[in-house]
Description:
This protein is an alpha/beta fold. It is built from seven helices and four strands; from the N terminus they run E-H-H-E-H-H-E-H-H-E-H. 63% of the residues lie in helices and 10% in strands. The two termini are 22 Å apart.
Amino acid sequence: MTLIDTSAWVEALRRDGDKGVRSRVESLLKTGHAILCDMVIVELWNGARGENERSKLRQITETLDRVSTTDAVWTMANNLATTCRTQGITVPSTDLLIAATARVHQLELLEADSHFRMIPEKI
Length: 123
């Protein structure tokens, strides 16, 4: 299963979005391998403009499974934040939480945001 980050959803939903990302999202949806998490849902709804976008988001959030933001996810996010800060790396808290969700639930992460590539693989 693959957790699709907000950045990948934005690329996939934009008319002029990255075709490679759009293709990957479409493939994950078609094969049933796409999954959501709470933070991505909040970010998507926060950026929604107009009824057309809200309608698409309703369909996405009502159709796809969602993994929970457990205590283990919060602990992992804290550990990622500490590790990044110790190494002088600044990553938005939302991205740390999404990365932690993917790691704890052992999911691949599809993203189009360089912040995720700044997070160390091992902590």
